[in-house]
Amino acid sequence: MIKILKQNEVTANEIFARAESGINVEVIVSDIINNVRTNGDKALFEYCEKFDKAKLNSLLVTKEEIDEAVSMVEPKFINILEKAASNIRKFHEKQVRNSFIINDENGIVIGQKVIPVDKAGLYVPGGTAAYPSTVLMDSIPAKIAGCKEVVMVTPPGTDGKVNPVILAAAKVSGVDKIFKVGGAQAIAALAYGTESIPKVDKIVGPGNAFVAEAKKQVFGQVSIDMIAGPSEILIVADSKTNPKHAAADLLSQAEHDKMASAVLVTDSIELAVAVQSELEVQIPLLERCEIARESIDKNGKIIVADSLMAAIEISNEIAPEHLELCVDNPFDYLDSIRHAGSIFMGRNCPEALGDYFAGPNHTLPTLGTAKFSSPLSVDDFVKKTQYTYYTKDALKKVANDVAFFAEKEGLTAHAKSAVIRVEE
């Protein structure tokens, strides 16, 4: 059963604390990466057979496989994918940054170019659930940014095929290439390239502890979006909140993973007790009840705060991945929220809207990193290059200043390079 705690009975660090697995993930992942770097596709085939129980002859998903998969998906779901994709595009198109140029002084031109990365790699989890939503959320910003090639990796089933809904989402969002490989080995393949899988410039997408560790270890060889931990939700709720709604929203994250964390912070002890009871009613009804049960019992918490503003301050200290404001007039509190991955405003905005349909991205910072990082966006798929142009006359006006500055740093060659041109 979920614990009910008073505000002074728990610290922010304890609220989303999770037990260590006891597995030496770092060493295991390092060995996998080295094997893929050395043996390429051969290592990937072996890992697919070992971890996914799939014997493959080819890693690439063919056009015929994609078409067959799409034909198996009901038209209603294809239509929903297209609606969701439209909402995601509409939101992310507003994030596009423009290059700029400044030439308001004679003889001087400075500017910045915004350039998409050439190849983006998307990791889409498999295992306990299929996530077509991740395909949309990760590929559409890359396409809007203008990446030349978007490459997706995802684990196959035991039949050697990719879940049809994953392939349908990939087709709707315009993914260029899809490969049947998952886990740390897929991250290694994207980072270093193999005979089949191209090396990419950026890897994005969530995964389990092994995927997260692999992204950490290949960072520097490639760019990554973030090191994501298990799912989190924090609900700030007042006494008018329907306990059935609050319990359902907590469980929407708890069913993801036994390590997921679901937290309610309220100023109402009556709501706290009602939600605690309602969770016991709803958990047995879930298809993934065992996962939700362990998540709620081990990582779930209800905190009774002294006031709504105190609840918001608790949230700011935690910096949750998903924050729901189940209060009257939620926009009155928006400016008080400093740290959260994504905010869901009011009583009619369950976090599931953000997971699938509304448009803002669902790849979000976890483990308190919302204090300094942001949701996945078009910005993740571009880089910036700056440029400078001076005429000789323009350089002549500032050469001595540049030289003086350089000499203060003891870099006389820098100084000489500035003045030599105007001494001639």
Major sheet characteristics: 6 strands, parallel
Number of DSSP E strands: 14
Average pLDDT value?
Answer: 95
Tell me the β content: 15-25%
Q: In what order do the strands lie side by side in the largest sheet?
A: 1-11-10-9-12-13
Q: In which range does the helix fraction lie? A: 40-55%
Contiguous helical run count: 16
Question: Element order, helices and strands?
Answer: EHHHHHEEEHEHEHEHEEHEHHEHEEHEHH
**Segments where pLDDT lies below 50 for 5+ residues?**
none
| Shape summary | globular
Q: How far apart are the first and last residues' alpha carbons, in Å?
A: 82 Å
| Secondary-structure content class | alpha/beta
Task: Please give the radius of gyration in angstroms.
Answer: 25 Å
Report on the architecture of this protein:
44% of the residues lie in helices and 17% in strands. The protein is of the alpha/beta class and 424 residues long. The strands form 3 sheets. A 6-stranded parallel sheet has the order 1-11-10-9-12-13, with helices on both faces. A 5-stranded parallel sheet has the order 6-5-4-7-8, with helices on both faces. Helix 7 links the parallel strand 5 and strand 6.
Summarize the structure.
This protein has 424 residues and is of the alpha/beta class.
